[in-house]
């Protein structure tokens, strides 16, 4: 490193771009996966090879505030079952590099039936590029350790991007995260668990990084939804296949004094430990 610094100092002094002190007051700015460039007084002329790689291990947190470039970017994750699971990564990937190990789907919409059942409709991906900072569903074909590899050198900054959709009665927000999420039950968050999109039952449940969760807001305040039905569109526009049955619980109402109410009228009640307005 010392030899490299002296070489740069010498070259800039010879070229007349700056004094030695001016050069020492500047730092290297990384500009590509294999190069670093010294910028002094607006001049950019010295490059040096670097050999950076970025490997994410499942569960670690990612908090970068700027995009960067690396010679190789990977994310390593161990799968204990072959059901649908959440995926959210800060780099782009080729479908062709994943298809031998995974089924992959993107979120289409949240729908609601007349009976009050809520469905998450997703569509299978069969070609193209997977976006960075975007919520996907993946289903591994086998268990064990898998490695996701970027199809470019660009690593995007950590962004908890929100994807909004919903119905007249419900608003749904999908939020990707690169940090561990706690207090899942208190916040009423839904997350994928063993192939099901379920609301956390207790605050002991946490969500690891590189995943997404769902915030579902009931505009009417009359249903208690613990699980959302997952439906896979396997043909692009038709042939929607039902994967999981929804579990819609019958709400139990309590007044603010803790007394059970059989036939709630207009007012504020406690349902599932939360205040609910009945209109």
Description:
- The strands form eight sheets. Strands 7, 9, 10, 12, 17, 18, 20, 21 and 22 form a nine-stranded mixed beta sheet that branches. This protein has a three-stranded antiparallel beta sheet with strand order 1-2-3, with no helix packed on it.
- A hairpin with a 3-residue loop joins strand 15 and strand 16.
- 24% of the residues are buried.
- The N terminus is likely disordered.
- It has three helices and 26 strands.
Task: Please outline what is shown here.
This protein is mainly beta and 279 residues long. The protein is built from 3 helices and 26 strands.
How much β-strand is present in the residues? over 45%
N-to-C series of helices and strands:
HHEEEEEEEEEEEEEEEEHEEEEEEEEEE
Flag low-confidence runs. Answer: 2-9, 11-33, 36-51, 237-249
Mean pLDDT: 77
| Approximate helicity band | under 10%
Count of DSSP-assigned helices: 3
CA distance, first residue to last residue = 70 Å
Query: Which structural class do the helices and strands define?
Result: mainly beta
List keywords for this structure.
elongated; disordered N terminus; 26 strands; 279 residues; 9-stranded mixed beta sheet; 3-stranded antiparallel beta sheet; 3 helices; mainly beta
Annotate the secondary structure layout:
Blueprint: H1 2-15, H2 20-24, E1 28-30, E2 35-40, E3 43-49, E4 54-57, E5 68-69, E6 73-79, E7 85-87, E8 93-94, E9 102-112, E10 118-124, E11 129-130, E12 136-140, E13 144-149, E14 154-155, E15 162-166, E16 170-177, H3 184-187, E17 190-193, E18 196-199, E19 211-218, E20 224-233, E21 240-242, E22 247-249, E23 253-254, E24 260-261, E25 267-271, E26 274-278
Parallel strand pairs: 4-6, 10-20
Antiparallel strand pairs: 1-2, 2-3, 5-14, 6-13, 7-12, 8-11, 9-10, 9-12, 15-16, 16-19, 17-18, 18-20, 20-21, 20-22, 23-24, 25-26
């Amino acid at each position: 490193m010392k030899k490299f610094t002296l070489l740069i100092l010498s070259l800039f002094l010879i070229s007349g771009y700056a004094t030695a002190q001016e050069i020492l007051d500047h730092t290297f700015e990384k500009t590509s996966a294999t190069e670093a460039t010294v910028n002094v007084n607006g001049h950019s002329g010295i490059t040096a090879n670097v050999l950076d790689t970025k490997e994410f291990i499942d569960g670690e947190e990612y908090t970068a505030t700027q995009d960067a470039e690396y010679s190789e970017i990977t994310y390593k994750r161990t799968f204990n079952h072959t059901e649908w699971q959440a995926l959210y990564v800060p780099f782009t990937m080729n479908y062709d590099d994943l298809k031998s190990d995974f089924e992959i789907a993107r979120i289409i919409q949240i729908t609601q039936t007349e009976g009050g059942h809520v469905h998450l409709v997703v569509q299978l991906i069969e070609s193209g590029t997977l976006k960075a900072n975007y919520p996907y569903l993946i289903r591994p074909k086998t268990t064990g350790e898998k490695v996701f590899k970027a199809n470019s050198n660009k690593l995007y900054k950590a962004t908890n991007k929100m994807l909004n959709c919903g119905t007249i009665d419900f608003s749904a927000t999908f939020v990707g995260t690169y940090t561990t999420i706690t207090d899942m039950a208190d916040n009423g968050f839904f997350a994928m668990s063993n192939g099901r999109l379920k609301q956390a039952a207790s605050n002991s449940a946490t969500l690891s990084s590189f995943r997404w969760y769902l915030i579902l807001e009931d505009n009417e305040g009359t249903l208690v939804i613990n699980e959302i039905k997952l439906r896979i569109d396997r043909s692009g526009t038709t042939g929607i296949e039902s994967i999981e049955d929804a579990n819609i619980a019958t709400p139990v109402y309590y007044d603010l004094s803790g007394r059970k109410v059989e036939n709630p009228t207009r007012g504020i009640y406690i349902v599932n430990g939360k205040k609910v307005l009945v209109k």
